[in-house]
Write a structure and sequence with these properties.
alpha+beta, Beta Polymerase, domain 2, 2 domains, five-stranded mixed sheet, 5 strands, elongated
Length: 241
């Protein structure tokens, strides 16, 4: 039995023990992709009957942390719409790319088809106001990054993080591509734009390892040039209650 098969068996045992009424379940994340380490958790999506409630739980199963994404069948369309609106598609990817564990009545298969259709359509485009706000934000972070002396390393590192995140947000949106957080940010960024994404990530690394903001600044400027250039004077953010 391979490590992936062992983790799938472990996840199946978890589902059948804790949720004997489940309509379907699948394993996602590193465990489903064969990249799990001894410290990796189990990402498990469980379809529940409508008599239950949708929720998210974190438990420990046989010594390994497990993050459970629990959704009733009726809540799935609304939850998928909410997940798409965040532009990260966390649970959409779980259903679209995960490893099926059980599907006694075909509900899981149909739900996976729904997820794949949403993933193929991509995230919603940024509104003009969101686009301008993000351009302005990236411009501000970039200006501060270049202007911060190396002696203020904590500030420099924080600015590098925000510059990378805002540039990734704009670049993935430009390509109608999904974004991510944590380890998924570089993965989604490279998938959306291999060249510009790598330049941003290499630039961020240069700040972290060598206190050199120049490569990240150049990469972020490329993103801004792609989207209309830096935005400073003339930016207006209207507020309404």
């Amino acid at each position: 039995m391979t490590a992936q098969e062992a983790l799938a068996a472990q996840a199946t045992q978890l589902v059948t023990t804790r949720f004997p009424h489940a309509l379907g379940a699948l394993l996602g994340g590193s465990a489903a992709q064969g990249r799990a380490t001894s410290a990796s958790d189990l990402d498990v999506a469980v379809l529940l009957p409508d008599s239950d409630t949708s929720r998210r739980e974190v438990i420990r199963h046989e010594g390994r942390p497990a993050e459970l994404f629990l959704n009733t069948l009726a809540d799935i369309p609304e939850f998928f719409a909410w997940d798409r609106a965040r532009r990260r598609g966390t649970v959409l990817f779980l259903y679209g790319q995960g490893l099926p564990l059980l599907d006694p009545h075909g509900h899981l298969s149909r739900t996976r088809e729904q997820a794949r259709a949403v993933l193929a359509a991509g995230p919603p485009p940024l509104t003009p106001a969101e686009h301008e706000r993000s351009r302005y934000g990236l411009t501000c972070y970039l200006d501060d990054l270049v202007d911060t002396p190396v002696t203020r390393r904590h500030e420099q590192l924080a600015l590098a993080d925000f510059t990378l995140r805002e540039a990734a947000h704009l670049l993935t949106a430009h390509h109608n591509a999904w974004t991510g957080i944590g380890k998924w940010l570089p993965r989604r960024l490279l998938s959306a734009d291999p060249a510009r994404g790598k330049a941003l990530l290499d630039g961020h690394r240069a700040v972290a390892e060598h206190a050199d903001p120049a490569p990240l600044a150049a990469a972020a400027e490329q993103v801004l040039d792609l989207l209309g250039g830096p935005l400073r004077e003339g930016y207006v953010h209207r507020w309404r209650p």
